[in-house]
Amino acid sequence: MKETTHWINGQFSNQRASRHGDIYNPATGQVTATVAFADSTLVDEAVTVATKAFQEWRHSSLTKRTQVLFAFRELVHANKKNIAALITAEHGKVLSDAEGEVTRGLEVVEFACGIPHLLKGGFSEEVSTGVDVYSIRQGVGPVAIISPFNFPAMVPMWFFPVAIACGNTVIVKPSEKDPSASMFLAQLWKEAGLPDGVFNVVHGDKEAVDALLTHPGIKAISFVGSTPIARYVYETGTKSGKRVQALGGAKNHMVVLPDADLDLAADAAINAGFGSAGERCMAISALVIVEPVADALIAKITERMAKIKTGDGTQGADMGPLVTRVHRDKVASYVDAGVEQGATLVVDGRLVNVAGDGFWLGPTLFDHVKPEMSIYTDEIFGPVLSVIRVNSYDEALALVNNHQYGNGTAIFTHDGGAARRFQNEVEVGMIGINVPIPVPMAYFSFGGWKNSLFGDSHAHGTEGVHFFTRGKVVTSRWLDPSHGGINLGFPQNS
Ligand code: NAD
What we know:
By secondary structure, the chain is α/β, with parallel strands linked by helices. Helix content is 38%, strand content 22%.
């Protein structure tokens, strides 16, 4: 059986691993490959390589870095379908969605191509006689990027193009469930002319992550995953003296006001609720409908749900399987709990009928969900949409603001004033107005509030550049050739 191994110093590692994980094709339920798990010795080897490479890469000219980034951009663009096929084979999402995530990742590469402009400092001439002050930003050193299963290409690409453009070296630790996209991207970096050792991939589980979090050679950690692990990564990494940005889980609310275009809202709820089988950190899972339009909107949603084809993502389905059997069963157990706790099950995805042993669960809709039910309090991360009926904007806003997560949210309305008030009052990092999945463009920054983010910096955009660099301010005096004499006085502005 094929074994996916690490990528260190521009080549596949030939070290024999003592532990492995299984990689599944979620549409067939079959194990298709294994992945080597790194121990602390292997992580140390990768950090040593990245530390050595940093000494050269940090001195590479901005022109050289930009040329490599442009070449990488062209290669990823040309290989979009190949990368998408790798993603679908291990994650299960449909091919068009997999291609979409590569496109969103490419936007960050394109943003990073502007690094000469992004790294420009400030300059103040003559702050005192003959004295100038200027600021510069420099890379921090080897950085680790630890990513979740749900976007095996896009999430690492939120970080590594910016990190590399800023002069850092990188170790990616992809999800052990779908590690192949990172390996493919590693080979494209090499083809693009990136020096060996600047981009490395180590695979594994907690053991590899812990080794990265505590290794003194790693200077910064970008993590994306579930909230308990994000909190752990933030606490452990910062305790080891590193800067950490740890993006966590989500429970995204879509608020529909009574004046909204209900067809637009129904389409949005379907796309954002069931796209990628709900395994998106920006998926909508709580639909907050302000009465009296709930019945009408639910009718439009159920009509659309009946047309969603669940099946193999390579065979023209609209929605693929869930990532693993364990995850599928966990999501199904939330459906069981919703019924037990008294919510009205309008569409039951447990009844979906797809041939084969894939990890199937169809689109599911609950009505009359109450805030104390576990289908509302918890992140489910599956194709389960919960409707909460409320009677006013204020009630809807209170629900969103009282939730532990604050990643994304959306409001649907024709009232510009209401939308403006919502964007001002809501305690969430990314907001859509008549837009269901408001993932910011790469030149803005991505990140949530509350339990959706631990740390101060969001991903990419200027916050990404700041995260991957440290500032310096230089005060310099070059004496005018006409200068003469000694002055032992305390420096003062004149
Ligand atoms: P996860 O937390 O299980 O795993 C994320 C990473 O952490 C993986 O690389 C995994 O190997 C590692 N890991 C797992 N357990 C660990 C442990 N005990 N100690 C150290 N490392 C550990 O997350 P997942 O299931 O792969 O991804 C889904 C989660 O990611 C969801 O909660 C989703 O909301 C979240 N997510 C958030 C964002 C965001 O932008 N906020 C984006 C994508 C996904």
